[in-house]
Each structure stands twice: as structure tokens, then as C-alpha cells.
Design goal:
It is built from eleven helices and 14 strands. The chain is an alpha/beta fold. It has two domains: about 5-65, Orthogonal Bundle (DNA polymerase, domain 1), CATH 1.10.150.530; about 70-349, Aldolase class I (TIM Barrel, Alpha-Beta Barrel), CATH 3.20.20. A hairpin with a 6-residue loop joins β3 and β4. α4 packs across α5 (about 165-180) and α6 (about 200-205) runs parallel beside α8.
């Protein structure tokens, strides 16, 4: 990648310092910030209220990270769009647009690949390449908004990668995304997922943001979680649940538990019973996810009757439960599938 300064990843205060160091007036920072995050221009030449000399100086020393739309798949079933974006260094990442009655929701990636090794996830099959810069996370949203010509109202950081494994860039991304001088998406409309990196969960809690934390739980006990999620070797399931309780205590925000139902693995009545005991008394929401089949894994989706029985068991214990509506099933909708197919085609070409 270019050695030029990544100006789009700077917050407003950093930009003010940057322009001051250049010998420019502080108000230039606000102008450039608006060009980058409100008007979302892709070149300094478009910043017409800056002098030609300043535009040239910026072009010589800075770069505006811009993702290139490589592929778009559109579901014929529900209009879900799966995007494959090309990064400056030749890597590719995925994002998903889901259209709901309440608005447009975008699921973004936080890393190129992932090192967490969750058994049911295609994103982790080739390991981690690198974390994304704040601007690379932001531009997924900007590019999709431009593509559909509509405002994005909700963002979930639940695509490829473990957000807490790219913590500093994640926090900067949240700052930029929710800044009233930029796109200004409400913190309450932002969800960040994690497989359970406890120290970072607690650090995020201490920031007292109004975002929703979603824990990828996927098991009702430590033994099964170890089988599905290698991160459980480092952080015991009870330690992770305690971090979720701490998050609620610090923020007042209800935690979401993501639970992928894998046929014959974690979908029994006993699993449901253990899950209710594990999270008993918590202000939480359980989101049951029929697992997406992955060619490289032998896991299968629980059948509809099993899913409904599991849901009813949880609801009878007083939990708030939903079953995630499957969107984009006719396209490569699951995390990592489109990127992996693209890489395979590149190797064969």
C-alpha cells in the first residue's frame, strides 16, 4: 500500500492538528472532514473550496482510501446484496446490504480473513491476513450507500474478522461513523459482534458507548464451545458470560447472544436447558441462527421443527428469542463464501 497518510481514518481533532502542522488554518480540517465523510468524495481535486495549491499538497502527501466494487450479487428472493470489494493492496473483503422495513442495514467486515477458527465459519478457513483500517471499514458503508442511492441506517460489524482483534481501529471507526460532523449514524443503530475476547469486551464496556454487543455464543457449555470455537481454549464460557454481564452493567445496553444451530451438535433439549441456566437473569436477547452449510465443513442446519422446539424451550424460561430470517440464501450470503470463491477463481485463472 501507499506510504501516504491515510487521511480518511483521522478524526476531526487529528485533522486539526494535521493542518496546523502544515501551517494551515484549523477550519480547513472541518472542510476536508465534510468532503470525506458527508460528501464522500474520492479525490482531493473534488474539494473545490480548497485552493489548488492545498489540494496539490494534500494529493502529494495523503491518500483517500476508496474501495473498488469487484462483484455484487443480488438475491432474487429478498433483494439482499452481497458485495465483494477490492482493497488497495489487492486483498478482497465482503459486505452485505439487507433491506428491512425499518431501513437499510449493512453488515461489514473488520479484517481480511480471520484467525479465530470457528468451525462453522468460511471466513476463517484461510486464516488472518490483516486488520482493516478505520477508513476501509467506513468505505464499505459509503460505497454501498452510493450504490443504492439511499441512506444506511443500521450497521453491524459482523462480517469477516473478529472486531475485538482489531480493537483500536474498531473504536476509531465507531468514532468516525457516529460523529455528528460525518455520516452520524446513531450509536444505538450499531452492533458489534465478538466470539468472546474477554479483555477487549471489558475495555469496550468501560467506554460506555450506546452500541449493542453481540456475543457469538453458539454453545450452552464449555465442552461444546471448545469443539466449535477455539477461542474457548483461552476464555472459559463462564468468563465470557461474566464479561457480558459487565457490559450491561457499564452501558445499560442489552446484550445479544448469537447461537448458530447445528444439526445434532448443539440443538438438543438439553442444550436449550443448559443455555437458559447459563444466561438466567440477564437482560439479553437470544438470536437463533440456522447455520449456513459450508462446503468445507460437514455441519448441517437444524430442521425447522427442532429450531422451533429450541426457541419455545427458551421462551418458556422467560428469554426474549428470535430466529434470524435467512436472507440472501440464493447467493453466497454466509460470511467468507464469496471471498473464498473469488480467491479460488483467481488461483485457477
Amino acid at each position: 500500500m501507499s506510504g501516504k497518510t491515510d487521511i480518511k481514518s483521522m478524526d476531526l481533532e487529528e485533522l486539526k492538528t494535521f493542518f496546523s502542522d502544515m501551517g494551515e488554518k484549523a477550519f480547513r480540517a472541518k472542510q476536508v472532514y465534510e468532503w470525506l465523510h458527508v460528501r464522500q468524495v474520492e479525490s482531493f481535486e473534488e474539494m473545490t473550496n480548497l485552493s489548488k495549491t492545498l489540494r496539490e499538497r494534500l494529493d502529494e502527501t495523503c491518500r483517500i482510501i476508496t474501495l473498488r466494487k469487484e462483484q455484487v450479487q443480488i438475491s432474487k428472493l429478498d433483494g439482499t446484496r452481497k458485495y465483494l470489494f477490492l482493497l488497495e493492496d489487492g486483498n478482497v473483503i465482503e459486505s452485505v446490504l439487507m433491506k428491512y422495513k425499518h431501513g437499510n442495514s449493512v453488515c461489514i467486515s473488520s479484517q481480511v480473513g480471520c484467525r479465530m477458527g470457528c468451525r462453522f465459519c468460511a471466513s476463517t478457513l484461510d486464516g488472518l491476513v490483516r486488520g482493516l483500517a478505520p477508513a476501509e471499514m467506513l468505505d464499505q458503508i459509503y460505497q454501498i450507500g452510493k450504490d443504492i442511492g439511499e441512506r444506511i441506517s443500521n450497521v453491524v460489524v459482523m462480517g469477516t474478522g473478529e472486531p475485538m482483534d482489531n480493537f483500536d481501529n474498531l473504536v476509531k471507526f465507531i468514532t468516525l461513523l457516529t460523529d455528528e460532523n460525518g455520516l452520524h449514524i446513531s450509536q444505538r443503530n450499531l452492533t458489534v459482534s465478538t466470539c468472546g475476547i474477554v479483555p477487549r469486551m471489558r475495555e469496550l464496556a468501560d467506554k460506555k458507548l450506546a452500541i449493542t454487543l453481540a456475543l457469538s455464543l453458539h454453545a450452552s457449555n464449555q465442552k461444546k464451545r471448545l469443539e466449535l470455537m477455539p477461542v474457548a481454549n483461552k476464555y472459559d464460557i463462564h468468563e465470557v458470560i461474566d464479561a457480558c454481564r459487565y457490559y450491561f452493567e457499564q452501558t445499560g445496553r442489552r446484550v445479544t447472544f448469537e447461537y448458530s444451530l447445528v444439526g445434532g451438535v448443539n440443538d438438543t433439549k438439553e442444550d436449550a436447558k443448559e443455555l437458559t441456566e447459563l444466561i438466567h437473569g440477564m437482560n439479553c436477547h437470544v438470536n437463533l441462527i440456522p447455520v449456513n452449510p459450508i462446503r468445507e465443513r460437514d455441519y448441517v442446519q437444524s430442521n425447522a421443527h427442532v429450531i422451533e422446539a429450541f426457541k419455545e424451550k427458551l421462551e418458556r424460561s422467560g428469554l426474549t428469542v428470535t430466529v434470524r430470517r435467512e436472507m440472501g440464501r440464493d447467493i453466497d450470503g454466509a460470511c467468507g463464501q464469496l471471498r473464498r470463491k473469488y480467491k479460488e477463481n483467481q488461483r485457477l485463472a
